[in-house]
Amino acid sequence: MVRFAEVGLRYGGPGDGPGAGPEVLRGVSFTLTPGSFHWLLGPSGAGKSSLLRLMHLAVRPSRGEVEVLGTRLSTARRAALPALRRRIGVVYQDFRLLPHLSIFDNVAQPLRVAGRAERQVRADVTEILRWVGLVGKADAAPAALSGGEQQRVAIARAVVIRPALLVADEPTGNLDVAQARRVMSLLQQMHRLGTTVVVATHAETLVAEYPAPALRLAEGRLVSHG
Ligand SMILES: Nc1ncnc2c1ncn2[C@@H]1O[C@H](COP(=O)(O)OP(=O)(O)OP(=O)(O)O)[C@@H](O)[C@H]1O
């Protein structure tokens, strides 16, 4: 479950701590049930990326309570956060693959960080690359792939750890319609497998094509949920 209660966020603090800047999220409250799929909508600057950053523990709220996968951030020990982060997959508009690593090693990275045995890494990465249709590109560099292919690698990297929560920030923003549909199909398959999925987007045509409940932000406030 993901629960926000009267959450506010200001940037400008040290590290991931609360800052003294203007409040970019204000009084945001909602609950996402496990296994749900939600769009996150709203105009540019409304706070979509900021809300996702709170959800994947990249920043802490300035006020209110954020609870992710059963852990309340206000009372969580710092030492518990890395393990919690490993249960959350993140996909960005600009893919954020490591350019000097092969596709295989990009996808393997979260498993290696988690200390999995190399035999297991090989099996899991091969399986997930087959799922995204890129097993033939395992040895290629990211730059040798199309944008859509790079995004499928980024999804593979995000889900290879079998996250309970998957958040995607404009994952189709740089893709043509066919590639965007392929990415959406993968995100929906993850949802059908029981993962809680949240996808931020501007693309109203995509939302119309894949109807689902939405969180809608305007000027840092949640204006509708459902
Ligand atoms: N790292 C940061 N430091 C300071 N202010 C920030 C930071 N990131 C975002 N903001 C501000 O927070 C507000 C919300 O930005 P955010 O990126 O969350 O909106 P968004 O809805 O995702 O926008 P877009 O659709 O354009 O990506 C904006 O006013 C933005 O300038």
From TrEMBL:
Keywords: ATP-binding, Nucleotide-binding. The keyword ATP-binding applies. Residues 2-226 form the ABC transporter domain. Pfam families: ABC_tran. SMART domains: AAA. GO terms for molecular function: ATP binding; ATP hydrolysis activity; transmembrane transporter activity. One of its GO terms (cellular component) is plasma membrane. Belongs to the ABC transporter superfamily. Part of the ABC transporter FtsEX involved in cellular division. Important for assembly or stability of the septal ring. This is Cell division ATP-binding protein FtsE. It comes from Roseicella aquatilis.
